[in-house]
Design goal:
alpha+beta, OB fold (Dihydrolipoamide Acetyltransferase, E2P), Dihydrolipoamide Transferase, 3 domains, eight-stranded mixed beta sheet, four-stranded antiparallel beta sheet
Length: about 400
């Protein structure tokens, strides 16, 4: 009797998914909870495990097919089948002890598997720096760089070809320009869809201000070593912005609200999304209940979400919800930008690079580390006055960080 391999339940906001990779083929043996296939939604890549031990009888939905929750994509039957990890018969016949087999390598994340496949690499040749030797995305990229460097070195050391040797054929015919066409990923397609949707459905305006970062930088320089020693995490700039934004959201509840049809939903909690880059594109994992988090807890939460984004380990729960978003284009060198709202939220704060600029203080021109701030907001819900005062509140809290501690 065979068992159905089904697509698991998807969150309400996700209608379907695409099968990215089948890790097992028909006739192969599998164990309970072993990963059978990866499916990609518009948010994350999910792994579908085997419901029980058995053998893959049939694959009903191939790679690239769009599937829905509960859909049967394969059949799992009883039996031993074949296994890629099974020891050759001649090894057993030779009387080799079972315990001489090498330990099974830690499983690869979807993002790592994709990189390994793209570069046609052998995972066993890559040294993993993660827990229990797990291979991370950075390990794969470092391995690729080392291979490229070795090839370049060999090419440099190789003797120059004879003058009469024929030139290698060009990859692109003369007179033609190269181009490459690849299908858009579900994440990229969803990003494009949502950004276009919000620009059509929301009345987006952006207000700007600038903040003197010297007080935050001075406080961070004075206490970063003690902070890291006590809490085991570095003190960054983002925790100051999360705390300042949370306090400003308390004072201006419209910015923390959202529109649902003809109703306004005022959220009594503060879940702040932090926009980060991942191998699959821009994602916005959510830091929950920021009003109850200490600076150290904020830093630890951000680091954890960032690591999960890099390794492809973000879950649906990490990416759903959120009442406000912070985007830091400054890490890429952006001096000024107008961020786009993440629907159904009503506002987003854009951070930018810190740059020393001349400013006027008490009638004198001085050099200060300045950062431009941008707040894009939905004018259907947030008036200009509230938006400007919200940004001024953040500026005031950052230029006098003691206010964050004293709650004034």
């Amino acid at each position: 009797m065979s068992t159905d391999i089904k697509i698991p339940e998807l969150p309400e906001s996700v209608a379907d998914a695409t099968i990215v990779t089948w890790h097992k083929q028909a006739g192969e043996a599998v164990r309970r909870d072993e990963v059978l296939l990866d499916i990609e939604t518009d948010k994350v890549v999910l792994e579908v495990p085997a419901p029980q031990d058995g053998v893959i009888d049939e694959i009903l939905a191939p790679e690239g097919e769009v599937v829905t929750a509960g859909q049967v994509v394969g059949k799992l039957g009883a039996g031993k089948g074949t296994s890629k990890t099974e020891k050759p018969a001649e090894d057993k016949a030779a009387g080799k002890p079972e315990d001489s087999a090498p330990a099974e390598a830690p499983p690869l994340s979807p993002a790592v598997r994709k990189l390994v496949a793209e570069h046609d690499l052998e995972p066993s040749a890559i040294e993993g720096s993660g827990r229990d030797g797990r291979i991370l995305k950075e390990d794969v990229l470092r391995h690729v760089e080392q291979q490229d460097a070795a090839k370049a070195s060999e090419k440099t050391a190789a003797p120059a070809p004879r003058a009469e040797a024929p030139a290698p054929a060009a990859s692109t015919p003369p007179g033609q320009r190269a181009e490459r066409r690849v299908p858009m990923t579900r994440l990229r397609a969803r990003i494009a869809e949502r950004l276009l949707e919000v620009q059509k459905s929301a009345a987006i305006l952006t207000t700007f201000n600038e903040v003197n970062m010297a007080p935050v930088m001075d406080m961070r320089a004075r206490h970063k070593e003690a902070f890291e020693k006590r809490h085991g995490v570095r003190l960054g700039f983002m925790s100051f912005f999360v705390r300042a934004a949370t306090e400003a959201l308390k004072r201006f509840p419209e910015v923390n609200a959202s529109i649902d049809g003809k109703d306004i939903v005022y959220h009594g909690y503060f879940d702040i999304g932090i926009a980060v880059s991942s191998p699959r594109g821009l994602v916005v994992p959510v830091l929950r209940d920021t009003d109850g988090l200490s600076m150290a807890e904020v830093e630890k939460g951000i680091n954890e979400l960032g690591e999960k984004a890099k390794s492809g380990g973000l879950t649906m729960d990490d990416l759903t919800g959120g009442t406000f978003t912070i985007s830091n284009g400054g890490v890429f060198g952006s001096l000024l930008s107008t961020p786009i709202i993440n629907p159904p939220q009503s506002a987003i704060l854009g951070m930018h690079t810190i740059q020393e600029r001349p400013v006027a203080e008490k009638g004198q021109v001085v050099i200060r580390p300045m950062m431009y701030l941008a707040l894009s907001y939905d004018h259907r819900l947030v008036d200009g006055r509230e938006a400007v005062q919200f940004l001024v509140t953040i500026k005031s809290l950052l230029e006098d960080p003691a206010k964050l501690l004293l709650d004034v």
